[in-house]
């Protein structure tokens, strides 16, 4: 792998470039994005220069799509005539079924391997990028068949993921979308809903009467709708089911505020919270 093209040089794309450099990649890293985003990524040291998609894809051995989901899908639909034959195309989209379907339908001259780095921040842009963003975080790959992970290009890519410190996990696309509806998408919506509910019922002065719990619980509410719009639209079925179970749990808690039934819920919740912290 001598040349990498990163389409979308915001937080994730720029962090990937920085991580590759930190891990010893000495090839060319070309950015495809708006002039402002390219400038910020060059200044951060994440890419060497900017280029058009046509130029970057024609030179790259690896094309990393770190755009919003809608932009990833649009790029995949027009990428095949532009891409270097034999290249690997992968992405960082937070949902996988629709992206993977489009990638498989439209790419013929290159291999497509869906991906999702489970890392990020509430703030956006190359100025927030970090070479360590993916370290000790899960990076999901979504091949249709296990053999797709064993091509020379895929094996080299997986090797670089190991070098940047990511923990690689393989799932099929639907299993990925089902799991993240519970582990990522429902938490975002719960945080947004809590912040919105409190904002409508507590004044600015009264909001200072709060412990760290409110700050912790509303951290995700800082996230941008521009990012989440496509995520919600492309995983609505799984998210609706997850929210249904969450609403049932909240109803159960409301109905048992005066009973000891909630002791069991507290114990179950605490056990799971400790489990995920042990796994970090």
Summarize the structure.
The protein is an alpha/beta fold. It has helices spanning 11-22, 35-44, 53-59, 69-79, 97-106, 152-163, 173-199, 212-217, 225-234, 236-255, 261-278, and strands at residues 3-7, 28-32, 49-50, 62-65, 88-91, 111-117, 138-142, 167-170.
Q: Can you describe what's shown?
A:
This protein is an alpha/beta fold. It has two domains: 169 residues, Rossmann fold, CATH 3.40.50; 104 residues, 6-phosphogluconate dehydrogenase C-terminal fold (Orthogonal Bundle), CATH 1.10.3660.10. It is 51% helix and 13% strand. Strands 3-2-1-4-5-6-7-8 form an eight-stranded mixed β-sheet, sandwiched between helices. Helix 2 links the parallel strand 2 and strand 3. Helix 4 runs parallel beside helix 5 and helix 7 packs across helix 10. The longest helix has 27 residues. It starts with a strand and ends with a helix.
């Amino acid at each position: 792998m001598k040349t990498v093209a990163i389409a979308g040089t915001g937080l994730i794309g720029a962090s990937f470039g920085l991580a590759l450099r930190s891990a010893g990649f000495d090839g060319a890293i070309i950015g495809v994005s708006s002039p402002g985003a390219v400038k910020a990524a060059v200044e951060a040291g994440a890419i060497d220069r900017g280029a058009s998609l046509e130029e970057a894809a024609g030179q790259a051995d690896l094309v990393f799509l770190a755009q919003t989901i809608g932009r990833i899908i649009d790029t995949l639909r027009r990428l095949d005539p532009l891409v270097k034959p034999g290249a690997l195309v992968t992405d960082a989209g937070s949902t996988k079924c629709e992206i993977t379907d489009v990638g498989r339908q439209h790419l013929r001259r290159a291999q497509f391997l869906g991906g999702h780095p489970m890392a990020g921040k509430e703030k956006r842009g190359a100025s927030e990028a970090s070479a360590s963003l993916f370290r000790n975080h899960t990076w999901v790959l979504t091949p249709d068949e296990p053999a797709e992970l064993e091509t020379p290009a895929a094996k080299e890519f997986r090797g670089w993921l190991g070098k940047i410190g990511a923990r690689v996990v393989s799932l099929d696309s639907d299993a990925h979308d089902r799991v993240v509806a519970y582990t990522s998408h429902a938490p975002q919506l719960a945080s947004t809903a809590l912040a919105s509910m409190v904002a409508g019922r507590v004044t600015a002065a009264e909001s200072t009467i709060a412990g760290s719990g409110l700050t912790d619980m509303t951290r995700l509410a800082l996230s941008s709708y521009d990012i989440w719009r496509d995520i919600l639209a492309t995983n609505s079925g799984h998210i609706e089911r997850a929210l249904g179970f969450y609403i049932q749990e909240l109803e159960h808690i409301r109905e048992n505020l005066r009973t000891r039934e909630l002791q069991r819920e507290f114990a179950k919740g605490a056990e799971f919270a400790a489990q995920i912290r042990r796994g970090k």
